[in-house]
Amino acid sequence: MTTAEQMPAIILVEPQMGENIGAAARAMLNFGLTEMRIVNPRDGWPNERAVAMASRADEVLDNARLFSSVEEAIADLKKVYATTARPRDMIKHVATPKGAAQELRSLSAAGEKAGILFGKESWGLSSEHVTLADTIITVPLNPDFSSINLGQAVLLVAYEWFQSEDDTADMVIRNSERLANKEELAHLFNRIEGELDARGYFEPIMARKPVILRNMRNMFQRFGLMESDIRAFQGIVKGLCLPRRGEQDKD
Q1: Per its UniProt record, what NCBIfam families does this chain match (predicted)?
Q2: Mean pLDDT throughout 222-245?
Q3: What distance in Å separates the CA atoms of residue 185 and residue 221, rounded to the nearest whole number?
Q4: Distance between CA atoms of 10 and 106, rounded to whole angstroms?
Q5: Which own/partner pairs from 176-180 qualify as long-range (CB within 8 Å, at least 24 positions apart)?
Q6: pLDDT tier at 3, thresholds 50, 70, 90
Q7: How many angstroms separate the CA atoms of 193 and 31, rounded?
């Protein structure tokens, strides 16, 4: 079994009921997961109803960390999965809970930190939150009745994680490099967006700016960039923003 630091983080995004947070904590501990991160819970935190529903999964709730945004909650992670049952108008890797669990085991074995996003009970994750993920996890369910609650969703993913312990796939990390974390990716996205804004790129197509940026972010998320890749892209952006040869002399 891997250490707690290497285990994936379970990230509950805007959960609405304390009971569901408690059910998620209980499911996590049933299958050996202990790191819960909570983003903007509707009823505040800590929550007595969560404690009652957790049925002695105090280890999870006592150490749960509270965040004000998804970006903050995933900043230190190298790979992020988003659970969703709804089709999305974006290109993403898609995995079942079993397939994702095998990938997570490989990441864990390589010392890479990952996390799994779970949306609020009423609507799940927003498209903006899904955009931040590398891979979508979709549970195969009865198409005529595919609604499951938050605790059940966490239980299904946690179960597959637990069952995958003996099926760790090989993973090669070149030159012992690490994957870029989400904070580093966010800095790169923001710099590209800022430079495009500064040069008026979006002015003729302002209405399409959100879609273009979303597609750009999804594209970069699929690449699985390493830390050196981020530095390389930062250097490329810097180089593209330099004046052309001869322009400085003309000025």
Answers
A1: rRNA_methyl_1
A2: 89
A3: 8
A4: 17
A5: 177/226, 177/227, 177/228, 178/78, 178/111, 178/112, 178/226, 178/227, 179/78, 179/79, 179/112, 179/224, 179/225, 179/226, 179/227, 180/78, 180/225, 180/226, 180/227, 180/229, 180/230
A6: very low
A7: 41
| Residue 248 in tokens | 């400085």
d(CA 110, CA 249): 51
- pTM of the prediction? 0.80
Structure tokens at 17: 């009921």
Task: List helix spans (H) across the chain.
Answer: 18-30, 48-54, 58-62, 70-74, 97-109, 127-131, 150-163, 182-198, 209-223, 227-240, 247-250
DSSP-derived secondary structure for 97-132: HHHHHHHHHHHHHTT--EEEEE-BTTTB--HHHHHT
pLDDT confidence tier of residue 142, bands split at 50, 70 and 90: confident
SS3 of 155, please?
helix
Rounded distance between C-alpha atoms, residue 129 and residue 116, angstroms: 11
More confident site: 52 or 1: 52
